[in-house]
Specification:
The structure holds 2 protein chains of 2 kinds. Chain A is α/β, with parallel strands linked by helices. Helices cover 40% and strands 14% of the residues of chain A. Chain B has a single domain, classed as Orthogonal Bundle (ABC transporter involved in vitamin B12 uptake, BtuC). The chains are: A alpha/beta, B mainly alpha.
């Protein structure tokens, strides 16, 4: 009897504690447009700040905040200050789902900006009911072509070209610049890599040996590295006297691991290394221990100017903002891309007008987004039927300092789509940067 | 006066508690409902640990892997076979239970650190296997969609309330089932096995069989909680079930008291509340990124120490102690 009584009491206590905790806070008052007041626009980002992914991508929210603070110091958007609420999802889907839900339900943000990662954001999008709540999901940092599906992701606007587009451009660049050379693809075995494989297939590119696929989270071990080096040496034996093109379609840490393994095996100069845009940040490669002599000559696809190119007005402006508003943070491709997305965001908010609504900002990007000023050297593809941001690449080559220069000394811009469309050379000239990097569009 | 048996009293208690949750779900906002769903899910996962560790005396560090098995099984049943989501949840529990049964047969001879090590290896390796089989959707995983609430509930019935109902109902039914099991003859054999396996065997208990049975049931419960977790994040993928989840749940079980089911909600609440409390503290007092990152871990550690010092058998034991003093 005592046991039953105590059990009943304990259970009741547990129930009271649980329900009491749930009732502790009351719901915040709902404004007409969530996250917008006369003085503030509240935006949110869920991205990895810590963990292995945080090493590279952890700079993104800080760089966006720095640009927004710069805009705030110069009058904000129609007098409203932009506040960016940043939450750390550690690149884990569960965390991304809960943190994004917190951004919507708890922080009451107006829109999401710069969400990062495919697996993470795909889960977060549904868990946070972004479609049902009509929350703008702006300038998502992933090239997964699935996010262009407007039925599944009706509020999402990508900023990166799709991985399939990148693969098609790389295939075209190999054909144009390395004719007759054997080639091999080493790619991440997930939607990132498979999107790329689909792009190479669509471009009709045939690799000389079966693709080497590895699971996400590849980490360097003597056995794994030896297996890759064996594949590479096999390729050399297949075509003696050639200089095969090795396409590395993975994240920066894996690109670094493979380049280091090739250097250790003494074969790094036997190949032309073609690193995908995701894994070709020179600063990060150097920081991860890749020798500058190995980096010298690496070919890459890019849609942005090089972060070290201070002759570029956008880069120069962003470097100045970084120095003043993001102290102690090294300016690199991640910071550049983040500030560029922040600049696009400000233009989207301005284009939506003073009476800011969620629907208004999405319509503004659809109708005016293709003309937004941005650092990108390729055109933006926003329209009523397209949610793809940049729709092309230019071919760059890194030097020993890690600077990305146009391959062959001439800037060649390729544009294409994610499907069967041809890869074409573009004559696109980007819009002039707004004065002092402060958009005044409407 | 009507005299109720303990099992009937327990049933009434669970029905009343379910009724309270139902009323509450109409009073609170989406955020609380979402958090409540996680509390129910984690409480269920902690129940699986209490059954296995607290009652049958087997230490498993691989609950996250068993949750993953259930989540994948349920997701594939819904996504690939087109089964109803409710059947998907049953499939999750069943497949994880069968997996646990097979695993139990293999590890039945192991105990203590050897069993912990084996299950730890399982937690590390099993989720990454998902990348090897295309049907499991690699890193993007498989969607786990329970759909929208029936139209008769109205347009204002949010997805969060629907998920809360599903998670709470599933957790209540399963915890009720386990509570009955643990107070039955089987529960007593588990305790006998835990406290003195030799004496249990001498008294006629088939130790191996009981251990395997406990492992299978615990796996089934873990599988169901894994499926519920997948519902809350709208899909299952390898990185949704990291090793850290196993440790977090074990921490929740220690706070709950591993020898009793009485405080499982408290365990779930702690797991959900700690990151929230850490967030609030950081907002109030500020701090570096390192501080922000390490604060939840510090709070969990502090809570574990307090639990071990002041309530090693869980909050329920405190009340019992007070009762005996009287």
């Amino acid at each position: 009897m005592i046991r039953n009584k105590s059990m009943r009491r304990a259970t009741l206590v547990s129930a009271i504690v649980a329900t009491g905790a749930m009732l502790l806070s009351t719901l915040p008052a709902q404004a007409a447009t969530p996250g917008v007041t006369a003085k503030e626009i509240k935006l949110g980002i869920s991205s990895p700040l810590t963990g292995s992914a945080g090493l590279s991508y952890g700079k993104v929210p800080g760089a966006m905040k720095a640009y927004f603070n710069y805009i705030n110091a110069n009058g904000g958007v129609y007098g409203r200050k932009i506040t960016l609420v940043s939450r750390d999802d550690k690149y884990l889907p569960v965390r991304a789902a809960t943190e994004t839900t917190n951004l919507i339900l708890k922080d009451n943000v107006f829109a999401l900006v710069g969400a990062l990662g495919t697996a993470t954001h795909a889960k977060a999008y549904k868990a946070a009911a972004l479609a049902a709540k009509n929350v703008p999901d702006l300038f998502v940092n992933t090239g997964f072509s699935g996010f262009t599906n407007q039925v599944k992701y009706p509020t999402t606007f990508m900023v990166l070209p799709t991985y399939a587009m990148e693969a098609k451009v790389i295939a075209k660049a190999i054909k144009d610049n390395f004719p007759g050379q054997p080639s091999l693809l080493i790619a991440q075995d997930d939607e990132f890599g498979t999107d790329g494989v689909a792009g190479f297939t669509a471009a009709g590119h045939k690799f000389s040996a079966p693709n080497v696929l590895y699971p996400q989270g590849y980490f360097s071990t003597p056995g794994r590295d030896a297996a890759v080096i064996t594949s590479l040496k096999g390729l050399l034996a297949l075509a003696p006297g050639s200089k095969p093109v090795i396409v590395l379609f993975g994240t920066t840490d894996v690109t670094a691991a493979l380049l280091k393994a090739a250097t250790d095996a003494g074969v790094e100069k036997s190949f032309t290394w073609y690193a995908g845009s995701v894994g070709a940040d020179a600063n990060t490669l150097l920081a991860l221990g890749v020798k500058s002599t190995t980096i010298d000559g690496v070919v890459s696809a890019s849609f942005m100017p090089d972060a070290k190119d201070l002759t570029d007005p956008y880069v120069k402006q962003f470097v100045d903002i970084n120095t003043k508003y993001n102290k102690g943070i090294t300016f690199d491709n991640y910071v550049l891309a983040a500030m560029n997305s922040a600049m696009l965001t400000v233009q989207a908010l301005r284009a939506a007008g003073k009476d800011l609504t969620r629907k208004g900002v999405m319509t503004a990007i659809e109708t005016k987004g293709a003309k937004f000023a941005s650092a990108g050297l390729v055109p933006l593809g926003y329209s009523a039927t397209s949610r793809i941001g940049y729709n092309g690449y230019w071919v760059s080559q890194l030097n020993a300092k890690g600077e990305g220069k146009p391959f062959g000394g001439k800037l060649v811009i390729y544009t294409t789509d994610s499907g069967a469309g041809a890869v074409e050379v573009s004559t696109f000239v980007r819009p002039t940067m707004p004065k002092n990097g402060i958009p005044t569009n409407s | 006066m009507l005299k109720l048996t303990p099992s009937k009293k327990r049933l009434i208690l669970f029905i009343i508690f379910g009724w309270i949750l139902l009323i509450l779900s109409n009073q609170v906002g989406d955020l609380k409902l979402y958090q409540g769903s996680f509390i129910a899910t984690y409480a269920l996962a902690i129940t699986s640990i209490i059954l296995l560790t607290g009652y049958s005396g087997q230490l498993s560090l691989g609950q996250s892997a068993l949750m993953a098995v259930g989540a994948y099984a349920g997701a594939l049943a819904i996504f690939n076979l087109g089964l109803h989501p409710v059947i998907g949840l049953f499939v999750a529990a069943l497949v994880a239970g069968v997996f646990g049964l097979l695993l139990g047969l293999i590890v039945a001879r192991l105990s203590g650190p050897y069993l912990a090590g084996t299950t730890l290896a399982l937690a590390v390796s099993l989720p990454t296997l998902a990348n090897q089989f295309p049907i499991l959707g690699a890193e993007e995983g498989v969607p786990f969609d329970v759909g929208s609430a029936p139209a008769r509930f109205g347009e204002d019935f949010s997805q969060y309330k629907w998920q809360f109902w599903i998670a709470s109902l599933a957790a209540l039914i399963m915890v009720w089932f386990i509570a009955n099991l643990l107070t039955s003859r089987y529960g007593r054999t588990y305790k006998a096995l835990r406290d003195n396996p030799v004496a249990a065997e001498l008294s006629g208990i088939n130790v191996g069989q009981v251990k395997v049975g406990a492992f299978a049931i615990s796996s089934g419960v873990a599988g169901l909680s894994g499926a519920l977790l997948a519902v809350l994040i709208s899909g299952v993928s390898p990185s949704a079930f990291p090793l850290s989840l196993s440790f977090a749940l074990l921490g929740g079980a220690v706070v709950t008291g591993v020898y009793s089911l009485k405080g499982v909600i408290l365990g779930g609440l702690v797991l959900v509340a700690i990151p929230e409390i850490a967030d609030s503290l950081v907002l109030r007092i500020g701090g570096s990124e390192g501080f922000t990152t390490s604060l939840p871990g510090f709070l969990v550690s502090a809570l574990l120490i307090l639990a071990v010092v002041f309530a090693p058998n869980g909050p329920g034991s405190l009340i019992k102690r007070e009762h005996h003093k009287k």
